[in-house]
Amino acid sequence: MTRLLRAIVDTHALRSNLVVVRQRAPGARVMAVVKANAYGHGIVPVALALDGADAFAVARIEEGIALRAAGIRQPILLLEGAFGDAQLAEAAHHDFEVVVHDPTQIEALERWRGPHRFVIWIKIDTGMNRLGFRCEEFARALERVCTLEIAPLEVRVLTHLACADDLESSMTREQVARFRRLTGALGLATSIGNSAGLLPGCAENRGDWVRPGLALYGVSPFPAVPAADFGLIPVMTLQTTVLATRRVPRGETVGYGATWRAERDSQIAILAAGYGDGLPRQLADGTPVLVAGKRVPLVGRVSMDMVAVDVTGVDAVAVGSQAVLWGRELAVEEVAGYAGTIPYELLCGISQRVPVELR
Ligand SMILES: *Cc1c(COP(=O)(O)O)cnc(C)c1O
């Protein structure tokens, strides 16, 4: 069957990026973050390809269950923990590790009476003000976790960095210092660095476990540093097909709202990709697209199923020609800038109807 649009996922690149992460965080164990359908890449195939990871991390319990159903045996951490008693029982059933970031989760563990003993990660809010116990609340949380009737299998500690993608910011240093001050003497396993925390190679910012997501997908979290500078290889190529070509005379417009007007007689190609596939409608005129290997500008509004590009002067563009919206030759980081967003959002936004093809 001919597929017009597909997300090609390069499993060799995934594995290679895992090697890069290990080199950047020598001695640390790697928890591969595969939440949000592995950032749009397909949670099960990605986890199977990353069988060398020491553990996986997900945001929602359903994601972990999908991994177990696919036969994944590594430890799986629920980054937001279990929500309520029923989820805690489910987490036990599937042998998930849990984050505890809120007193209600400790209360659920205090009520827990099953045979399962959890690996519990206490989350400390060192300044992000999203999830976790404030520094002054941590000692009490730790005490409660350590005195649970059903003793944990192991207690570990983690925190999340707010500004690690900004290499100029002092916030990372402050957060890590707070975390170390609280946990340094406890002898518990720690986890700090996400991709931006671990890639610069600073040992202080990683902890015993690193939690990379974006880097594994071959994408740089730093606006000014291309992924290639770290040796990372983009994993996803979003590839589509020219559905039609048309001559648009000077002065005519293209697409909904007639927002783009041809300033010269133009050759326009219509591609099979739209916001129904996850392409942001915010993509601006001039967003680069590769058509038949050449960079051409997007023109007019993104529709649900289609988008137009100006291929004037590009030879050999015809119905059936292939186009790349992002991938190895066109960084998703760059494309994201044209929608005023970050590569994370473009990758996670890939919709259900886009078939994933493994290479
Ligand atoms: C999503 C997430 C990560 C992974 O972050 P990247 O920037 O993609 O590496 C790590 N830790 C937590 C708690 C997360 O929510």
Plain-language structure description:
- It contains eleven helices and 19 strands.
- The radius of gyration is 23 Å and the shape is elongated.
- The longest helix is centred in the N-terminal third of the chain and has 14 residues, at 11-24.
- The mean pLDDT is 97.
- The protein has helices at 11-24, 35-39, 43-49, 61-69, 85-93, 103-111, 135-146, 171-183, 195-198, 332-338, 343-348, and strands at 6-9, 29-33, 55-58, 76-78, 96-100, 119-125, 133-134, 154-158, 189-191, 209-210, 236-248, 253-254, 260-261, 266-271, 288-291, 294-299, 307-310, 322-326, 356-358.
- The strands form three sheets. Strands 2, 3, 4, 5, 6, 7, 8, 9 and 10 form a nine-stranded parallel β-sheet that branches. It has a six-stranded antiparallel β-barrel with strand order 11-14-17-16-15-18.
- The protein has 359 residues and is an alpha/beta fold.
- It has two domains: 11-218, Alpha-Beta Barrel (TIM Barrel), CATH 3.20.20; 236-358, Lyase, Ornithine Decarboxylase, Chain A, domain 1, CATH 2.40.37.10.
- Strand 8 (154-158), helix 8 (171-183) and strand 9 (189-191) form a beta-alpha-beta unit.
